[in-house]
Write a structure and sequence with these properties.
Layout lengths: L8 H24 L5 H27 L2 H30 L3 H8 L4 H13 L23
């Protein structure tokens, strides 16, 4: 069966539901915490959807398309995945070691789990999750030092 014969409307529905859930989470966060930045937090959480959509596109291309179209999509996803640890490295060098507010937050023992989770999710899924630190998602008021 070719991709032209396949009804692909089914693919959009899970992404629509996931996007609606993430938008709702961000909206509720904005209602619960006044300092919560709704739009930036929603865009950060869309990092999950970006990864899932690229992986779905790769799967669908190899299943219903040709490998010639799959190779550029795999390269795009690989670059996306490689950007995550690269961003983590530069975050550590340019922000974590310089920003006094971040250092103060990171040294607090109650933030140890959040700090580790952000590192692993930011390095593995999307570098955008580091922005959650500065958008009041966790309820913290960390101010970035301008360089």
């Amino acid at each position: 069966m070719s991709i032209a014969e396949k009804d692909l409307k089914v693919v959009y529905f899970p992404f629509l539901v996931l996007t609606a859930i993430l938008a709702s989470l961000s909206w509720v966060g904005g209602k619960v915490k006044v300092t919560h930045l709704v739009i930036p937090n929603f865009l950060v959480m869309m990092g999950f959807v970006e990864n899932l959509s690229l992986l779905t596109q790769i799967t669908m291309t190899f299943r219903f398309g040709t490998w010639r179209y799959g190779i550029p999509i795999i390269l795009a996803w690989a670059l996306y995945v490689i950007a995550n640890p690269v961003f983590s490295y530069f975050f550590k060098k340019k922000i974590a070691e310089v920003d006094v507010y971040y250092s103060k937050w990171a040294k607090n023992p109650e933030n140890a789990v959040t700090k580790k989770m952000l590192f692993w999710v930011g390095s593995g899924i999307s570098w955008k999750f580091y922005k959650l630190m500065y958008s009041h998602f966790w309820g913290y008021n960390i101010k970035a030092v301008t360089m």
